UniProtKB/TrEMBL annotation:
GO terms for molecular function: ATP binding. It comes from the Bacteria. It comes from Paracoccus onchidii. Signal peptide: none annotated. PANTHER family: AMINO ACID IMPORT ATP-BINDING PROTEIN, METHIONINE IMPORT ATP-BINDING PROTEIN METN. This is Methionine ABC transporter ATP-binding protein.
Length: 353
């Protein structure tokens, strides 16, 4: 399909708060003073732990939740205050896909995708070509007449994506859409979403608890913790400049770099008597991604460094490296300070003899 000019909508959260009243009368504050701008045509990843407020934030974009304070604007329209026909119009502009697909078991692939068009009152003669086009876009031409029970998870999500696109929305919301899929299928679904964003100019907001998903697809991101946005910005900038412990803990799990088994079994979190080596994860990014910093560390501080595992990956066009190293535990603090001073991130994984 050819590339078209962006047709996505911007989404602006301005000082948004949301409180719920619990069954016992006590209040739950799900979001506090959230301000975030998602550019038209961007793919924005929102990452946070369970209960952080991700779903609440996402559901405000299509008016399923209304803010207690503040404003949510989609394409300049105030979703929280919209009612009736105006709210329905905004909702037509916002499609959504779900972790468990939410397909209708009694309907075929074709009929699931046709459903939003039927609800919108589109004439059957116009529905058929539109659904066929969507089926082709998501690569399910040979599965047109199958039922959800006859599809794999990845195929079900493709149906979910086609259904969400049926009414030509400007925004696609993804609620943990790849969390129920294996890593390989996750990649194919992320690729499809990226292609759709590129070809249709659609704005995509996806919530996830997996940093790898954000790394692989998002142009911008926000980290949410306890109802607050603790960091946000272009994905690469957040990856290389992250300062908040929540972001760092998500980052530490993002690479495929793991300790060799013979070492991980012996690693202790606290340094015990006799532990000689400190094991570190060192993250290289930005202007230092390709610098020979470990060689410099050895030379400048006269510390021997053992490289245990490592990889250089890319976020968009930018290099992002991860190394697992060990060094003399007595010199650990000094070495970490040196590396941090040169713009690298360090994390102590533990100690070994
Ligand atoms: N309708 C509701 N009534 C009361 N409390 C709610 C309601 N919806 C959400 N909450 C509370 O708001 C907080 C944020 O919930 P939310 O579902 O937005 O988090 P989340 O980050 O999406 O979590 P998860 O990843 O587990 O889905 C939680 O403490 C939750 O219990």
């Amino acid at each position: 399909m050819t590339r078209t000019e962006p047709t996505g909508a911007s989404i602006i959260f301005e000082n948004v708060g949301k409180s719920f009243s619990g069954a016992d009368g006590t209040g739950v504050t799900a979001l506090k003073d959230v301000s975030l701008t998602v550019d038209a045509g961007a793919i924005c990843g929102i990452i946070g732990r369970s209960g952080a407020g991700k779903s609440t934030l996402l559901r405000m974009v299509n008016g399923l939740e209304r803010p207690t304070n503040g404003t949510v604007l989609v394409d300049g329209r105030d979703v929280g205050r919209a009612r009736g026909a105006e709210l329905r119009a905004i909702r037509r502009d916002v499609g959504m896909i779900f972790q468990h697909f939410n397909l209708m078991a009694q309907r075929s692939v074709f009929d699931n995708i046709a459903l939003p068009l039927e609800i919108a009152g589109i004439a059957p003669a116009r529905i058929e070509p539109r659904v066929n086009e969507l089926i082709e876009r998501v690569g399910l031409t040979t599965h047109r007449d199958r039922f959800p029970a006859e599809l794999s998870g990845g195929q079900k999500q493709r149906v979910g994506i086609a259904r969400a696109l049926a009414t030509k929305p400007k925004v696609l919301l993804s609620d943990e859409a790849t969390s129920a899929l294996d890593p390989e299928t996750t990649q194919t679904v992320l690729t499809l979403l990226r292609d759709i964003s590129r070809d249709l100019g659609l704005t995509i907001v996806l919530i996830t608890h997996e940093m790898a998903v954000v790394r692989d697809i998002a142009s911008q991101m926000a980290v949410i913790d306890g109802g607050h946005i603790v960091e946000s910005g272009p994905t690469y900038d957040v990856f290389i400049q992250s300062a908040h412990p929540t972001t760092r803990s998500f980052l530490s799990g993002v690479t495929g770099v793991t300790l060799p088994a013979f070492l991980s079994g012996r690693l202790s979190k606290q340094r015990n008597a006799g532990d000689q080596q400190e094991v570190l994860r060192v993250t290289f990014a930005g202007p230092h991604a390709t610098d020979p910093m470990l060689a410099r560390l050895s030379t400048d501080l006269n510390v021997s460094v053992n490289i245990l595992a490592g990889a250089i990956e890319e976020i968009g066009p930018h290099p992002f490296g991860n190394l697992l190293i060990s060094l003399d535990a007595d010199r650990g603090a000094e070495a970490r300070a040196y590396l941090e001073r040169h713009g690298l991130l360090t994390e102590v994984l533990g100690y070994v003899r």
